[in-house]
Amino acid sequence: MTNILDSYALDRWFTPEAGLVDIPSAIDGRVVARASTRGLDFAAMVRHAREVGGPALRRLTFHQRADMLKALGAHLTAHKDALYALAADTGATKRDNFFDIDGGIGTLYAYASRGRRELPGERFVVEGAPEALSKNGTFIGLHVLTPLHGVAVHVNAFNFPCWGMLEKLAPAILAGMPVITKPATATAYVAEAVVKLIIEANILPAGALQFVAGSTGDLLDHLTGQDVLSFTGSAATSQALRDHPAVSRNAVRFIAERDSLNAAVLGPDAVEGTPEFDLFIAEVVREMTVKAGQKCTAIRRIIVPKAQESAVIAALAVRLAAIPVGDPRRDDVRMGPLASRAQRTATREAVREIAAEAEIVFGDPEKVEPVGGDADTGAFMAPVLLRCPEPLTATAPHAVEAFGPVATVMGYDTLADALVLVAKGEGSLVASVYTYDPAVAEELVFGIAAHHGRLVLIDRDCAKESTGHGSPLPGLVHGGPGRAGGGEEMGGLRGVFHYMQRTAIEGSPARLSALTRTWLSGAPAPLSAEHPFKHKFDALSVGDTVETASRTITLEDIEHFAHFTGDTFYAHMDEDAAKANPFFPGRVAHGYLILSFAAGLFVDPAPGPLLANYGLDSLRFLKPVSPGDAIRVRLTVKNKQPARKPEYGEVRWDAEVFNQDGDTVARYELLTMSSRV
Ligand code: NAP
After folding, report:
1. Index of the ligand 1 atom closest to the CA of residue 156
2. CB proximity list for 201: less than 8 A, separation 6 or greater
3. For residue 181, what are the β-bridge partners?
4. Distance from residue 157's CA to the centre of ligand 1 (Å)
5. CA 257 / ligand 1 centre spacing (Å)
6. Which residue's alpha carbon is nearest to atom 34 within ligand 1?
């Protein structure tokens, strides 16, 4: 019985009965699954996401959503062997699966940990500092981010059925948006298995995730300005989606990750025999052969000094010839087949187009002898290397994406020419640069950065630990301008904020403090009857304040501090030298003395619920403190966040140190951990 792929709609599995299309195995062409979405009610799915999934997710804090992602990561990890086995039919080797399956699970974990560490235990984010909008400080503004009230529709490419889905899912769920995910049909059976595991784990709330195995029907017709459409795939499909009447009419937020002709650039210094030359060869071969070159980030254009061109081609040919192509389940195979024979036909056609302006210098696109496979029934293809003799005037090698193990070598005379060649790709996801010469690195990086979402500088110092040219990472932006789609994914919290609306909110400091549960200058700061360090986390209120007595700082204090710490910098010790310094009126107190004395002023020394001081943020010394000045401190609870362990909470205090004239001499945020039990 062929596996008929289910969709997951309205919290139920839906098995199609009509309109089924066959999905062939990449290895031998046998039908491994069948899919159809006929009968799926897309309008109801969108409604369900909006009315059930969205509200349920928005009731949770970022930390609760982060914990769900972590739990999902653990569940998928426990079952990943089954996914590995299934993915073989997509052509994936063990090494490929590492990127797709482990990489996808890793993205869930990465967002779980960022959500816990970098987002508040709230349902909104306050972005940046408040803006002063009035003379007396009674009217201010700030920016908040809240989750959109619609649905995130994710449309993915065939090459990474697991990673492609999870790297979009994790930021959306963390943001608080429900998802309808649609994998490419060609490899949807892997995505279906992942979604079945996610649903079976029963971690996400109802309506948070729906799954479409097959075409999207009229799904896009139902999208509005509260929805996000995030697409990965070809430029042609991206354009069709962007131009969809509902998407353009309703200004649906659209993120596109498309194909791109990514470059690897060998610096003029990296001649044969240097470590950078060898690293370059190894990286190009890896990028041409991982996933049989079916990676949006794969190196397609190999840009090298003309003097190195023949050495590069010779070295690549040796390495490529040593890559066994064949059945991806075999341990002796390094490169599996393309995803389908149709994909191979398209790749061969693309090679023909490129070859109109380039010569094939290694491999034959029409011939392959797969290890343990059949070249007719399986979608195998040997690596193909081309050389473009006139790359500055050629078009096809810069424009035609052969989505397979195919790349073109192009020589440059000067670095300026190399910049022109890279730019001819009209916008790429990534480029890598191989040089040990700082001047070359600078010229290349700042010459091509504007055309890329990511640049990798590979040299002898970092190569061993480098994650490589082709790996998008959760903490770094994935996306690129122009041909690459103009979108951005991941990049840490940037990717989460795509699913949120940024709203400027203006009002009084009191109102905005109360709304954001963050004390802002000008908001009420009631003095605590009892020292707030005596209060447990839950008994502290934002705005609770302690004002200290003052302490006069003497010359003896400064000298004592200087000799005790060893900081005998002249500004503290030598009146004439200090006076000659434009910043100081004469000898002044150390900044760290001010901090230390401030702590001495505000501390409540007895054991109590305040457990530890674990840092300072945003410290500024604003005015010098001279011998004879008297300082005092105002300490106010700025914000409270639950810690990972339920028995603790983090308190952020606004600390302002004044002199005897009421001028602020230092300001910072003090971070403490307080007990909740
Ligand atoms: P594709 O043909 O553009 O398909 C991508 C996705 O769009 C598939 O899920 C496809 O579904 C869907 N789709 C196609 N027509 C649609 C329509 N009219 N309405 C709604 N959805 C539609 O691309 P692909 O062949 O899967 O992937 C290969 C391409 O993706 C390459 O060009 C590669 O460079 C690019 N890619 C880019 C990235 C990136 O991050 N930038 C990553 C991976 C791949 P069906 O499968 O059901 O047709």
Report:
1. 9
2. 71, 72, 75
3. 154, 211
4. 4
5. 9
6. 259
Structure tokens at 285: 């071969």
pLDDT at 94 over 90: no
Active site residue 296: yes
DSSP state of 51: I
Give yes or no: 162 in active site: no
pLDDT above 70 for 184: yes
Percent of residues in the chain assigned helix, strand, coil, to nearest 5 = 35, 25, 40
**How far away, in angstroms, is 238 Cα from ligand 1 center?**
8
Q: Is 155 in the pocket of ligand 1 (CB under 6 A)?
A: yes
**Which stretch of 269-278, 588-597, 600-609 has the lowest confidence by average pLDDT?**
600-609
| Model pLDDT, residue 39 | 94
Contact 449, 430 (CB under 8 A): no
Contact 609, 674 (CB under 8 A): yes
End-to-end Cα spacing for the chain: 58
Q: Is 230 in the pocket of ligand 1 (CB under 6 A)?
A: no
Q: Are 310 and 304 contacting, i.e. CB atoms less than 8 angstroms apart?
A: no
Element spanning 639, H or E: strand 630-642
Q: Whose structure tokens read 């596109």?
A: 256
Q: Where are the beta strands (DSSP E) in 463-576?
A: 477-478, 489-490, 500-507, 545-547, 551-552
Atom 46, ligand 1: residue with shortest CA distance: 184
Strand 359-362 versus strand 152-155 pairing type: unpaired
Q: Which of 162, 276, 283, 296 is catalytic?
A: 296
The residue whose C-alpha atom lies closest to atom 30 belonging to ligand 1 is: 233
C-beta 471 within 6 A of ligand 1: no
The answer to whether 281 touches 319, Cβ cutoff 8 Å, is yes
Closest by alpha carbon to 237, among 485, 482, 20, 427?
A: 485
Split at pLDDT 50, 70, 90, the class of 1 is low
The pTM assigned to this predicted structure is 0.92
Quick check: CB of 581 below 6 Å from ligand 1? no
Q: For residues 117 and 430, what is the distance between their CA atoms, to the nearest angstrom?
A: 28
Catalytic residue among 162, 167, 192, 257: 257
Give the span between the Cα atoms of 154 and 229, in whole angstroms. Answer: 6
Q: How many angstroms separate the CA atoms of 605 and 600, rounded?
A: 9
Report CA 345 to chain centroid distance, whole Å.
Answer: 34
Distance (angstroms) between ligand 1 centre and the Cα of 610 equals 54
Give the mean model confidence (pLDDT) for residues 551-564.
98
pLDDT at 283 over 90: yes
Residue 644 to residues 113, 121, 124, 187, Cα–Cα distance (Å): 11, 10, 18, 38
pLDDT tens figures, 451-483: 999 999 999 999 999 999 999 999 999 999 999
Atom 38 in ligand 1: which residue has the minimum CA distance? 296
